[in-house]
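hiii, so i know i said id send this last week but things got crazy w the move. better late than never?? heres the sequnce for the chain we talked about at the cafe, plus the structure i predicted for it. fair warning i was half asleep when i ran it
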Amino acid sequence: QVQLVESGGGLVQAGGSLRLSCVASGRTFNTYAVGWFRQAPGKEREFVAAIWRNGDMTYVADSVKARFTISRDNAKNTVYLQMNSLKPDDTAIYFCAAVASWLETMTSRYDYWGQGTQVTVSS
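okay and structure toks below
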């Protein structure tokens, strides 16, 4: 069982940066890949980025690849999403999720989810 808690969201002006954190409970955190997803009002939840168990492989959606970076610190049971050059279109609730299998991009593949953190980018 893994419990995930996101933090780091907030209100930022366009062009600004935020770093989201996803802290996991449990001693088996390094056996899970972790993904970040986001959901804007009225839209489906979409994949943002994922990172493999030991952090040596990542996959970032093309739409944010030039601006977002995913990383992890297994000693702290934490995965980060660094978001730079934020745009109003990045406004959404951001969720982290864990899966044992692979760098999944589909929400249905993930076993554990956090409650989300709100990111609002003003123009």
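btw The radius of gyration is 13 Å. thought thatd interest u
miss u guys!!
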